[in-house]
Every structure is written in C-alpha cells, then in structure tokens.
Amino acid sequence: MTVALQQLVNGLTVGAFYALIALGYTMVYGIIRLINFAHGDIYAVGAFLGLSTYGLLRLLHVDNPILTTLLGLVVSMGCTGLLGMLVYRVAYRPLLHARLSILISAIGASLTLEYGLFLIYSPSFLVYPHLFDSPGMALGDISVSGLQIIIFVSGLVLMTALYVVVHRTKIGMAMRALAINQDAARLMGIDVNRVIAVTFFLGSTLAAFAGVLTGLYYSQISFLMGFLIGLKAFTAAVLGGIGNIPGAVVGGFLLGVLEGLAAGYFSSRWKDVVAFGILIVILVVRPRGLLGERVVERM
Predict the structure, then answer these.
(1) How far is the C-alpha of 198 from the C-alpha of 181, rounded, in Å?
(2) Is 164 exposed, middle or buried (0-12, 13-18, 19+ CB in 10 A)?
(3) Contact criterion met (CB below 8 Å) for 257 and 271
(4) Which residue segments constitute the domains of the chain, with CATH numbers given?
(5) CA distance 214 to 207
(6) How many Å apart are CA 57 and CA 94, to the nearest integer?
(7) Distance between CA atoms of 11 and 253, rounded to whole angstroms?
(8) d(CA 68, CA 204)
(9) Rounded CA gap, 3 and 161, in Å?
(10) Measured CA distances, 61 to 76, 130, 131, 145, 220 (Å)
(11) What is the chain's pLDDT, residue by residue, as a tens digit (299 residues)?
C-alpha cells in the first residue's frame, strides 16, 4: 500500500508535465487538425532557455531561488511562446491546406529545433541548479517534496487559467469557433491566422513551463529530452480525447499515475511499455479517447 501511494505522488508529479504538454497538442489539433510533432522540442527549448536564464542571473549575482525561478519561467515562457508562433508562421501556415506536406513539415521543424539545441548548447547532459531544499512533508513512509507540491499546484493553476481563457474570453470564443468551422468563423470576421498563432503561443508557453520545472525536478536536461516526453504527452492527449482540454489534463495525470505504478510494482523499464501499450489499446478500442466526442464526417 505504501508503494502504491508513493508512486501515486510521483505519478501525479510526472503527470503534471504530461498534461501541460498534452494541452498544446490538443489545442492545435482541435483547431487545425494537425499533430504538431515539433511540440516536444518546443518543450526542450523552454528547458534550455530556463537554464540560460539561470546562468545569466548567477553572473548578475541574483541568488534568491524564488526570484530566480520566476524570472527563468517568465523569460523561457515568453521566448518559447514567440518561437511557437514563428514555427507556425514558417513551417505550418503556408501548408494549412496540404495535409501530407504539413505533417512532413512538422517533422522537419522538430528535427530543426532538436539539432539546433545540439549545435547551440551541447550533445551532453546539462545540469540544472539545485534551488529548492524544502523537505515538503511526510506521511509515514510516504514523502512529498516541496518541489513536487510546487509542480502539482502550479500545474493545476495554469491548466485552470487556460480553461478560463478558452471558455471565458473573446479569443477563447474565437478558438472554439475555429474548432467548429474555420470557413464560418472567417465569414464572421475572425482573423483565423491570428487566432491560430495565439493558440501556438499559449501551447508553447505551457510546454516551456513544464520544461523548466522538469529541469529543476530531474536536475539535468539534454537536446533529445523532447522526443520521448512529446510522444508520451501525445499519448496522454489521445487517452483523454485529443481536441478536448479537460481530456488532455485527465489523460496526462492518468498516464503519469499508471507509469508510476508500473515502475513501483515491476521496474522503471516498464514505464514506456505501459505508455505506448495504452496508446495502442485506446486507438483500437476507443479512438476518440475517454472524454472525446464522436465526430460524424459529412460528405
């Protein structure tokens, strides 16, 4: 029982990363029906930008861990959001009506970002600064670190904020209109390209937030870090129902918990087997996911 509860804590922490990244996949797919293969690498770019910001602040003798982390998050999220918009403008916007070409362009964008990090930084693992020594709390044999609490709570706050933006603001209304019918939205005066660009910006900022916190949690990053977690976040989006924002959150946390239980009761080597086994089962048994709705194609 203790093992299960401890792995539940660990799984919710990792699930927060999956959910934050899965939201970017699900928003883009919901609007332009594109699997943004570059999204995992956007997450990696956010982690590296956060590390660069930490290094710069250290040179300026800024040592307060809370201020340093906040500045790292703000810089990383802002720059990565703009990068997401740039990727859309260069790699996707000219090909929106060419379904096969845009998928190939997405793979090209992913590899460009991935090996751009390789060239700019290093092929080796880079170490994040150790900023948080808070012991958190312990319940018997179950321990929850302060950083795990920060990751879980801040992740929920951002997910809730995104839900409010999508359902309570004009730009969110425009995003939902595009998800239903782009042509009708254009006829109603909605600037389609602007709304799509904002969608990429929001998804990229969430990925960057997850990237910085991943660096703090695992203490190291690499230029390949976005590939595997991007696939798992996509699995989480499919599990919850791709195109459905609450579904991406549920899928992310559920996948993280299942991976944690597999690692606790079997071996950490089983985590990837569980993740991608779930993807296969969901695609075969319930392709629309847990919270997805059946879509009727009209000829």
Answers:
(1) 17
(2) exposed
(3) no
(4) 2-285 (1.10.3470)
(5) 10
(6) 39
(7) 7
(8) 21
(9) 33
(10) 19, 16, 14, 27, 22
(11) 667 788 888 899 999 999 999 999 999 998 988 899 999 999 999 999 999 999 999 999 888 888 999 999 999 999 999 999 999 999 999 998 888 899 999 999 999 999 999 999 988 899 998 877 666 676 767 788 888 889 999 999 999 999 999 999 999 999 999 988 888 999 888 999 999 999 999 999 999 999 999 999 998 999 999 999 999 999 999 999 988 899 999 999 999 999 988 887 787 788 888 888 988 998 898 888 888 765 433 33
Q: pTM of this prediction?
A: 0.92
Structure tokens belonging to residue 128: 């994040």
57 in Cβ contact with 64 (< 8 Å): no
User: What end-to-end distance do the CA atoms of the chain give, in Å?
Assistant: 53
| Amino acid found at 47 | A
> CA separation (Å) from 143 to 6, 46, 226?
7, 29, 28
- The whole-angstrom separation of Cα 255 and Cα 16 is 10
Are 251 and 241 within 8 A, CB to CB? yes
